[in-house]
Every structure is written in C-alpha cells, then in structure tokens.
UniProtKB/TrEMBL annotation, chains A, B:
<dbReference type="InterPro" id="IPR054105">
    <property type="entry name" value="WHD_NrtR"/>
</dbReference>
<dbReference type="InterPro" id="IPR036390">
    <property type="entry name" value="WH_DNA-bd_sf"/>
</dbReference>
<dbReference type="GO" id="GO:0016787">
    <property type="term" value="F:hydrolase activity"/>
</dbReference>
<dbReference type="InterPro" id="IPR015797">
    <property type="entry name" value="NUDIX_hydrolase-like_dom_sf"/>
</dbReference>
<dbReference type="InterPro" id="IPR000086">
    <property type="entry name" value="NUDIX_hydrolase_dom"/>
</dbReference>
<feature type="domain" description="Nudix hydrolase">
    <location>
        <begin position="6"/>
        <end position="139"/>
    </location>
</feature>
<protein>
    <recommendedName>
        <fullName>Nudix hydrolase domain-containing protein</fullName>
    </recommendedName>
</protein>
<dbReference type="InterPro" id="IPR020084">
    <property type="entry name" value="NUDIX_hydrolase_CS"/>
</dbReference>
<comment type="similarity">
    <text>Belongs to the Nudix hydrolase family.</text>
</comment>
<dbReference type="InterPro" id="IPR020476">
    <property type="entry name" value="Nudix_hydrolase"/>
</dbReference>
<dbReference type="InterPro" id="IPR036388">
    <property type="entry name" value="WH-like_DNA-bd_sf"/>
</dbReference>
<dbReference type="Pfam" id="PF21906">
    <property type="entry name" value="WHD_NrtR"/>
</dbReference>
<dbReference type="Pfam" id="PF00293">
    <property type="entry name" value="NUDIX"/>
</dbReference>
<keyword id="KW-0378">Hydrolase</keyword>
Length: 227, 227
DNA sequence: GCAAAAGTGTTATTGGTACACCCATGG
DNA sequence: CCATGGGTGTACCAATAACACTTTTGC
C-alpha cells in the first residue's frame, strides 16, 4: 500500500506580560475531531510551501498574528496521535512582543485567546504534550541565549526582564547579581528615559543591542545564564 | 488539490574510533534520483509505524546496524529538496559503539561504509546539510551531556574520551584539567584493569556509571563542559 | 636507552554567590 | 509620611586556567 501520511504544522506562540506572566496562543477548532476544543493554531502544509511559510500562513489566517521569532521545536509522529488519519505534525514555537500580544479582532469566526501557561485548558490531540515540550525548550533557550528580548517591548524597565526570567525559570534570583551579569555581557543599553508604572520610583528603560549581541556571538561568546 | 507530500526519515549515525576520529555511516543509493550516489540511510515511513521505528528499520535493512542512542535532529521540508516529489524528511542522529562500528557484511547489495567527517564524499539531496546540522548538534550535546560514552567502548582508557572531545570540539584541552573536571562529577569509575595499545605506558580503563549519572541529573546537576 | 603515551599538583585569577540599605515617586 | 517598587557595592568562596616533569612500557 502506498503511503498515506499527512503533514501538518502546529505553532506554540508565546507572549509575555509582566502582570500575567508567560501565555500561549490558542484557538478553538472549527471541525471534527475535537470540534470546539481548544487547540494550537496550525494545519496541513500545502504542496508548494515551506514548513515556515505554512506556520506563518496559519498564524495569520487563524489568529491574525505575526511572530518575530520562529523556531522549529520537534516533529510529532506517533501513528495514533490523530484519531482519524495518520498526521505527523512539525511543531514550531514562536515569540511575540506585547503590542502584537493584543489580538486583532478581525480574525475568523473561531475563538482566539491567550492562556497563561499556569492555567491551560484541556487541549485537542497531543497538543498539551507539545506545549510542555515547547515550555521546556523555551526555558532551556532562555538559559543560554537572550531570546527573552523578543518577548519584551523594544524599551523596557530592567525589572521586566527580571520578572520574565523568574516566572519562566520559577525560582528566585538576586536582583543585583542578575543585573551585574546581564550588564557585563554588554549587549544591553541603558537609556536616558524612565517610565513609571503604578506605585514606586520610576524605572530606567533599557534596550537590547542586537548588533553588539551578534558580534559577541560571532566571537564565540557563551551566554550561559544558568541562574 | 489534496496534499501530496511524502514523509521520510533519514539517519546520521556517528561512530568513533580513536585513530580515525568521528565517522558517519553512508550508503549508496539503488534507485534514481541520485542512483549510486552516497547518501544517508533512510526512506519512507510506513503508514503504521512510528518515526523511530522507521529509522531503526531502515538502519537494519540498509546497513545491518543497531544504534544505542537515537535522537530526533530536525525536520527538513523545503519544497524542492527532492527533485521529483515533495518529500519532507525527519532526520535523526544516532551513536554507535566501536564493536557495532564493524559493519556486518550481509546487508543488501548496495554499498555501506563509514566516512570520517573530515573527508565526506558528495552526498545526494540536501544530505550534506543534514550532516552539518547533526555535527553541530553533536558538538553542542557533548558540551552539556556526556553522550560521548555512547560512542566509546564500555571500558575505555581515559585518553579515548579526551581524544573524542578534542577531535569533535577541535581545540586543544589540558589533560589534567579535563580529567579533574570529569572525575569530579563522579559518574566515571576507574577500574583495576589496564590495556596497552601500541607504544607507551599502559592505560587504566574507566567506565561510565549510568546510574550515578542519572541520580546527579535528577538532582538538577548541570554538566557544562564548556571546554 | 630512547621514543611514546600515561599519569599527576599547585598556584593565580576569575566568576559566582550571598547579603541589606537607601531612593524616588504617588497617594 | 508611608507604601511601593527601583537602585546599588562588597566580601567570601568556588571553579577555572595555566603550567612541566615523572612513570611505564616496547623496541
């Protein structure tokens, strides 16, 4: 018998908000199986598009969102992961900044929403497992590459970065030591501006210097933030 | 038009020999396209088998080999990577010990051989690229997990481990410091036996204590051999 | 006895960790 | 004036890096 395996892509898109912590973008399914269940955005790959194109297309169609970082996560291929057909899914994970985090309303009829990774609903297929793998990967990635900057506003107070690391790595970290370490790398610039949010002293804004970061990286620098 | 994408697996199997360095297992293709060209072992996934089963089956059929470590590498899905059909390939990389490294002769008619990663022949499809990705991954993996032991004999002289790291990370390392670091982790046991190979003083044999390793790992130990 | 590989300790420097008080603002 | 979050420096300890000579064997 000839091969009858379908290929799909699924995307685990992470957003971050200092109040809410890390969230994942979910949609409700329009069709059986798992109709009306929450699921990862994704769908079948078209014959002439690349996997990345497929992910970006689905994200646009289903959630009206553009990610600014996208990386392949893992390919899930157990024969029974879809109850109807054999479908292997190439999963990606993406990161979006807070401003894209506000979903544009004009997407399809289906529901789209952010869910904190601490309070996920029941998910279709093996999507819970895929999300778990993505979270682990993001944690690992964060520990040796400053991808966190893709989740923050272009200009942000230092405490946002700190909170991001704390919420994702889920353990305390020393404010002074953390700042010392990050600033020592030299890819983070302190700006003249400040902002104030709620109570307390206004906070200086910082921005990530990508150019400097890539220079350091070229020179074989290791960013091991094994915090 | 309905989807007509095929799913295959390809395997980058690494072997190691202290004399030869790190090698990759290649086969010659029986059919067009790229007939008689060197290529990675692999082939189409069957409808009812998992991706891992497919890799292991192909390795058995095409090269008569069993790997003792297998991990998914990346999924390659560019529309034009196969000149005839659209085929996405889920690539795996595997490690074998020297004794499996000797290929059993009774495989199919096609050629099977090891090639040093320093002297690879021209490869079919995008297999050169896949091998490059696998090498990078192995280097990275080696730096934070002792997978190297899967490449060495059960009992081995310390210098084999040292040579493995040197050849793969391609820079000098201090014998004393390296040994100090590895032995400090506590998952490597010194045996009473020695062997002698060629000239020079006989070398003590060592063996990897997997149980101890997993204990340490459970306790959140980090093996960062950023050498 | 010489060539070849194995084995072994000490010191200096660096980076990591622990730790507590003052500052600027809004209400 | 007080509550809230922002900002900062030092001292100790642990890990890393640099470094060269001796031992055991085969030939």
């Amino acid at each position: 018998m000839t091969q009858s395996i379908k290929t799909s892509v699924d995307a685990v898109v992470f957003g971050y908000d200092p109040e809410e912590g890390v969230s994942v973008l979910l949609i409700t399914r329009k069709y059986e199986p798992f109709r009306k269940s929450w699921a990862l955005p994704g769908g079948l790959v078209k014959n002439d598009e690349s996997l990345e194109q497929a992910v970006n297309r689905e994200l646009k169609e289903e959630a009206g969102i553009d990610v600014n970082y996208l990386e392949q996560l893992y390919t899930f291929g157990k024969p029974d992961r879809d109850p109807r057909n054999r479908v292997i899914s190439v999963a990606y994970y993406g990161l979006v900044r807070p401003k894209d985090y506000q979903l544009s309303a004009d997407t399809d009829a289906e529901d789209v929403a952010w869910f904190s990774i601490k309070k996920l609903p029941k998910l279709a297929f093996d999507h819970k497992h895929i999300v778990d793998v993505a979270i682990k990967r993001l944690q690992g990635k964060l520990a040796y590459e400053p991808v966190g900057f893709e989740l923050l506003e272009k200009k942000f107070p230092f405490s946002d970065l700190e909170k991001l690391y704390q919420s994702l790595l889920s353990h305390e970290l020393d404010r002074r030591n953390f700042k010392k370490k990050i600033m020592n790398y030299g890819f983070l610039e302190e700006l003249e501006e400040s902002i104030q949010r709620g109570a307390g002293r206004p906070a200086r804004l910082y921005q990530f210097n990508k150019k400097k970061y890539f220079e350091l990286k070229e020179n074989g620098y290791n960013f091991d933030l094994f915090i």
